[in-house]
Amino acid sequence: MPDYRLTRISQRIFASAGVSLFKRLHAAGESRVEAMLQSYLQYLRLTAHLRDTPDQLTFDRFYTVVRAFETQDLKMRSCGDCGSEYLVAVDGSMKPGCVFCDVKVRSLARPRFSQLFARDQAAHVERGVARVK
Ligand SMILES: [Zn+2]
Fold it and tell me: Measured in angstroms, how far is the CA atom of residue 100 from the centroid of ligand 1?
């Protein structure tokens, strides 16, 4: 049986994005095969700037993950905080919770990222675009 497990956070992000695209195209009436091919092409276009990232999905891996979604070994959940859809393993083998909120929390915890964020907020306030709480 092909391995659909997604152990690293980057794997979960890529897989969640790919399956979300597949789900939308298939729900819109595309055949399973067409939805799979078109969603993978869309996925490649959306992640083209991350081409050298090791956890980016190959088509074989994409197929395995979509198949696990179809057999309900993986399920899609909607995040109540950020509104994103993310994959979870029914067998509990993946960390629960929204992978996108997890990334946000981890990024904000990094001082370098926090400094960049603070500079960006200050620039927006100077231009009157946003307010800092
Ligand atoms: Zn979220």
Answer: 5
Tokens of 77: 């959940």
> 110 C-alpha to center of ligand 1: Å?
19
Neighbours of ion ligand 1 (CB under 5 A): 79, 81-82, 84, 98, 100-101
Dist. CA 86 → ligand 1 center (Å) = 8
Cα 83 to ligand 1 centre (Å): 6
Tokens matching residue 11: 């794997």
Do the beta carbons of residue 69 and residue 23 sit within 8 Å?
Answer: yes
Residue 4 resides in a domain: no
Does any domain span residue 113?
yes
Instruction: Indicate left, alpha or beta for 29 from its phi (over 0: left) and psi (-120 to 50: alpha).
Output: left
pLDDT at 133: 33
In a domain, 30, yes or no: yes
Number of domains in the chain: 1
pLDDT along the chain (133 residues), means of 10: 80 94 97 97 92 88 96 96 94 89 83 51 45 35
